Amino acid sequence: MRPSNFSTKLLWLLLGGLVLVSAGLYNGYPLVTPDTGTYVQSALSFNVPDDRPVTYGLFILYTSLFKKTLWFVIFAQSVLLAWLMLRYVEEFVPRFTSAFWRVALLALTAWATGISWYSSQLMPDIFTSIGLLALGLVLLGRSRSKPETGFLLFVVLASEMMHNSNLLIYTMVVLGFGIVAGVKKLFKQQIVRRVTWLIVTTVVLSGWVVLPALHKSLGGDFAVSRSSHAFLMARLVESGVMDKFLKDNCGPANSYSLCPYRDNLPNDAIAFLWDGNSPMNKAGGWDVVRDEYKLIIQDILTSPSYYPYLISDGIQSTLRQLTHIGHGDGLQVSREGTTPYDRIRDFAPFELKKYMNSLQNRGQLNFATLNERTYGTHLWALVALGLVLATPLRKRISLDLLIVVVVLGLGIVSNAFVTGALANVLDRLQGRVSWLLPFVALLVVAEHGPAVLQYLHHLATSAQREPTDVA
């Protein structure tokens, strides 16, 4: 690549990164949630948190250029996301030969979906989408070179280890895609190379070992998380399954710490985990109750009598999570006395005034208009994809683009199941990936818009020509 061409592409990439970091610029500082403080603390101390990976803390440390500024963190993740989005436009909208139109499509996606409000957060949530996009490119063999393939696989592995849920989400995606590819004979027809799928699957499954090994090397346990028992128990409490279990099992033969609270359990998982008066915290916290909770969870998962309740709740929670795509969840004011404030004061004290003067910490963020637009965008995206996939237009769409719809669709549904059925139904947890639906719809419309308009014109003309009954 000639230097001038490289410089031009770099400038457009940086412009795309600025588009995706625009929410942070508008806010006046990178956005934070109550969980941000834990990630920044792990960057300060290298300690492995009990309830989340250390990986994003290391990302914060290195991309901030060792505590120079937290702005670099959100810009780095936004540039990475911009690069992946532009690669998708290059691969699946070849009629857009101009860098201007590619960045314009990126900007349209950001405006329509509000994705910048995730990529501008000091949170690992955006990496769920980043890893899914990288997965799609590798599975379809759309990387330009072996070094790019290696980089994409590294992005998949790193993204997988940024958040505990990503391990299960990516595993479900690659295994689900393998089933689809086998049924549709994509392997047999060499549309998708089996060896490529095996390599990607190996990388994804290796995350289950690499992450515990990383934790062990930094002084933690050889485990993905030391608190998975607490989160699963909280989910069972919220679902109502724990009420039935305690009703069936509390008695002279069993003395579970939850038995005295069986008629007064919290209504939701968040209260069970974080409220100081919850049964778990009154018992001494998740370290104290670990063995007991693991035993209870094992009893429930090995007792078929609870399966109807678990399945019903899993389906309901997944469907509910699919609709929770609003913005603003967790972006509350975090001033003095909060964990984000304390950790940012320790990490970048010279940025504390900017942090305090941000719109978020002045309580001046309003997401009503954005959420209305986001919901509308998702509805139109469903209509557009339905029009293409359920009509003869499907024959005009390249098979690779249809496979992209499958891969990203699996990611969206898997995310809804893992977060909704196994953790919490929250806007933040689904909004981090739901924007991929409008993005892939825009790819389809951008490449096949003329064919879509021609088909709609044909339908309208045919309807006008139909004879009408005359009484």
UniProtKB/TrEMBL annotation:
* Membrane-spanning residues: 69-88, 100-120, 164-183, 195-214, 401-423, 435-456
| Alphabetic keyword roster | Membrane, Transmembrane, Transmembrane helix
- Spell out the protein name for this chain: Glycosyltransferase RgtA/B/C/D-like domain-containing protein
